[in-house]
Design goal:
The complex is a heterodimer of chains A (307) and B (429). Chain A is of the alpha/beta class and 307 residues long. Chain A has helices at 8-30, 54-66, 87-95, 111-116, 134-148, 169-180, 206-210, 223-226, 234-241, 245-250, 281-300, and strands at residues 44-49, 70-75, 101-106, 122-128, 158-162, 184-188, 201-203, 215-218, 256-258. The chains are: A alpha/beta (307), B alpha/beta (429). The interface between A and B is medium-sized, with 25 and 22 residues.
């Protein structure tokens, strides 16, 4: 059985702990004058991106290069894929070129599982539909661990995830990893932006939790949702669920303010987070490379990191 | 194909009138003698010791595809799949291209069915032109060429006013309108049942309510107009309850359920395998239990397959792009027998004589097994334990959800118009 990294749930507690420790190691490698190691020399990583995502793609690309893997990238918006060729044809064609790992991003849930059925290579989920984004979850958990100076036990930590939970793979995966590590999560959203059912605590009153929690995790609110009748309008959404100055000043001094990026300034973010000491947003970007190096190394590495 | 003169010897006859040990002699398409211990004489002796002889099955819900997607199925491959499943008649769904909304298309399907000659292909007509939900099709002209069941299957008639007029107009003609119950505004982009599983998988969802609202609406429209309505592929607990109440009120409401809706739940989609995408979607275990109860107590009259062939090139796509539907004809009996705890007579009624009456073809199908009756028969091995081998399916597609699933009971022979069209589980033509 090939090992994949497709969801937090599938990976399980033991692997997540190991990957967090490995991420720390990779972050240390990244701080060296020469951050490149030969660990994956001769391995080929194929980035298969059916949805625009410059940041995640570049982060994976750099992570693979830091490990000395060869990379290739197929970035296509799904609409431009030749309708005569099935997804399976595409994967089988690339597989025939000799790929050790596919990094898959797709706007539909489940595609990384389908891809794994068509290739013997390892599959890394770089975001599927509204379902999962496990490397984002890993970098988020690592960022909390690093900033709080704690190990892999998050018990006692309270986290509010705010915004469009229903359509967010980040919300699902990050909630999964935080709960797995023992944190308490609350989802903050109107009913229309929550999944049909949920066993996570929920509230639609951001003000009730903003000054209470250890972490405020803001989600990106996509502008196209505004027109879909899920919320009355952007102004009302911002008044109820954005981080504005009043709420920013209510944040606890030791709290963390997180966002997966890219931010929608003027929608969910009404303040400049770079001016807030609580913000971890750029740390998340930096740590993303280490987390992805950890996953690639776990799946493809055989010897040590340094050789 | 030649008619066979044969003696089906050693089996147990089960039909609407009861169950008895008897040999059945068929000559020139007609049952001419029934008695115990007949001798074959010049007729071919077909030894069916241990088997059940039943009237051939009738499927109320068979998309045959020929004009729309011949790479998925043709009338020939679909008829062969039907015969292998024990069916001697299928109602061909109108969601073809062009739509079965006019006499020419309907006659083409009937004619092609007769040429193939493996089962009785009875085209349905659409309720509205092009299944667009607006203008009624010529019900009377279509009824004159043999159409009895009208449906826009694939989608429901959304407009209440259109459906009311359709029922009023159909009532005086003696035809039956059948509804695919789905309020489209509640199912936009939906891939699976709305509940815990879809929340977890992040897939757009199809709430049970979208079916139940239309079931309720059409029951009330039947009450208003006095016209019969047949509810296709019911999938939710509340739908069954609504139909049960309608029947208690004496309304002319009939209903069907598919083998997959009594055997597979929505958790199958956690594999993200597109074979489990179907419309209406697989529901919860609680829904499955209620649909089964409905079949057992007669609230749901018939088992219908909604046999929906799709080639791999269509199913090897992301879940939102992959078309809904799964194969059903060749596995229906085995799945139904394996999941319904009832007498053989009750089960066969749901597969043969009850759907034959709904389809208005009970002069030829689902008949008692008696002297003078047409020889449309299914011979069943009730104890056969088997697994589906997708490469052995007659259908042009392979999208069965039952690969590797152990099933009980299998069709051994199918006799259509006095000809053995399936012998020992293999099509003869």
């Amino acid at each position: 059985m090939t090992l994949h990294f497709r969801s937090i749930e599938e990976a399980g507690t033991e692997r997540i702990h190991r990957l967090l420790d490995l991420t720390e190691h990779m972050a240390a490698v990244g701080r060296r004058p020469n951050p490149k190691v030969p660990a994956l020399r001769g391995k080929t990583v194929c980035n298969l991106f059916f949805e625009d995502s410059t940041r995640t793609r570049m982060s994976f690309d750099l992570a693979a290069k830091r490990l000395s893997a060869d990379t290739m990238t197929l970035a296509v918006s799904s609409s431009s894929v030749n309708k005569g060729e099935s997804l399976r044809d595409t994967v089988e064609t690339l597989d025939a070129m000799g790929v050790d790992a596919f990094v898959v991003r797709h706007q539909t849930s489940g595609v990384p599982w389908q891809v794994a059925g068509w290739t013997p290579a390892a599959v890394i989920n770089a975001g599927d539909g509204w379902h999962a984004h496990p490397t984002q979850a890993l970098l988020d958990a690592y960022t909390i661990r690093q900033r709080r100076g704690i190990a892999n036990d998050f018990s006692g930590l309270k986290v509010a995830v705010v915004g469009d939970i229903r359509h967010s793979r980040v919300a699902r995966s990050t909630t999964d990893i935080l709960q797995l590590l023992g944190a308490k999560v609350v989802h903050v959203a109107p009913r229309t932006l929550l999944p049909p059912t949920s066993d996570v605590a929920t509230t639609s009153n951001f003000d009730d939790v903003v000054g209470e929690v250890d972490v405020v995790y803001m989600l990106r609110m996509q502008r196209e949702r505004m027109g879909a009748g899920l919320v009355p309008d952007g102004g009302e959404y911002s008044r109820r669920f954005a981080l504005d100055e009043r709420r920013a000043s209510a944040l606890r001094p030791d709290a963390l303010l997180m966002h997966p990026g890219p931010m929608n300034r003027g929608v969910e973010m009404m303040v400049d987070p770079t001016e807030l000491p609580q913000s971890t947003i750029l740390d998340q970007v930096t740590n993303g490379i280490a987390a992805r190096m950890a996953v690639l190394f776990e799946l493809l590495g055989s010897g040590g990191i340094e050789e | 194909m030649q008619q066979h003169n044969m003696l089906l010897a050693g089996g147990t006859v089960i039909d609407e009138t009861g169950e008895r040990r008897a040999d059945v002699r068929v000559r020139e398409g007609i049952i001419i003698e029934i008695s115990s211990d007949l001798s074959a004489g010049d007729d071919e002796l077909v030894d069916i010791a241990g088997c059940i002889v039943a009237p051939g099955f009738v499927d109320l819900h068979t998309p045959l595809r020929e004009t729309a997607m011949p790479q998925a199925e043709t009338i020939e491959t679909g008829s062969r799949a039907a015969a292998l499943g024990g069916y001697t008649a299928v109602v061909a769904m109108p969601n073809t291209d062009p739509t079965q909304d006019c006499v020419e298309v309907v006659e083409f399907v009937s004619k092609r069915g007769r040429e193939v000659g493996l089962c009785d292909v009875r085209p349905s007509g659409s309720i509205t032109i092009g299944r667009a939900g607006a203008q009624l099709t010529p019900f009377a002209d279509l009824a004159a060429v043999g159409v009895h069941l009208f449906t826009d299957d694939g989608s429901g008639v959304q407009d209440e006013g259109v459906m009311r007029r359709a029922l009023e107009y159909a009532g005086e003609l003696g035809v039956v309108l059948a509804q695919h119950c789905e309020v489209a505004s509640l199912t936009k982009g939906a891939v699976m049942h709305e509940g815990e599983c879809c929340s977890h998988l992040g897939l757009p969802s199809w709430p049970a309510l979208a079916e139940e609202l239309m079931v309720h609406r059409d029951i009330e429209l039947s009450r208003l107009t006095g016209s019969p309505v047949h509810l296709l592929h019911l999938s939710t607990a509340r739908s069954v309850e609504l139909v049960r109440a309608a029947k208690a009120d004496g309304l002319r409401v009939t209903a069907e359920a598919t083998p997959h809706h009594i055997s597979l739940n929505d958790e199958r989609l956690t594999s993200f395998d597109t074979r489990f995408k179907v419309n209406p979607p697989l529901r919860t275990t609680a829904d499955i239990e209620e649909v089964k109860k409905g079949l057992l107590d007669g609230t749901i009259d018939a088992i219908a397959t909604d046999h929906a062939p799709h080639p791999p090139v269509a199913k090897d796509r992301p879940l939102d792009e992959a078309p809904p539907g799964m194969l059903g004809l060749e596995t229906a009996l085995g799945v139904a027998r394996s999941h319904l705890d009832c007498s053989w007579q009750h089960l066969l009624g749901a597969m043969s004589w009850r759907p034959a009456k709904i389809a208005g073809i009970d002069d030829q199908h689902g008949r008692p097994i008696a002297v003078g009756e047409p020889a449309n028969l299914a011979v069943i091995d009730p104890d056969s334990q088997w697994e589906v081998d997708p490469s052995a399916l007659a259908s042009r597609s392979r999208n069965t959800p039952f690969i590797g699933v152990g099933l009980t009971a299998r069709v051994r022979h199918t006799v259509y118009e006095g000809r053995i069209v399936v012998r020992d589980g293999k099509a003869t033509a």
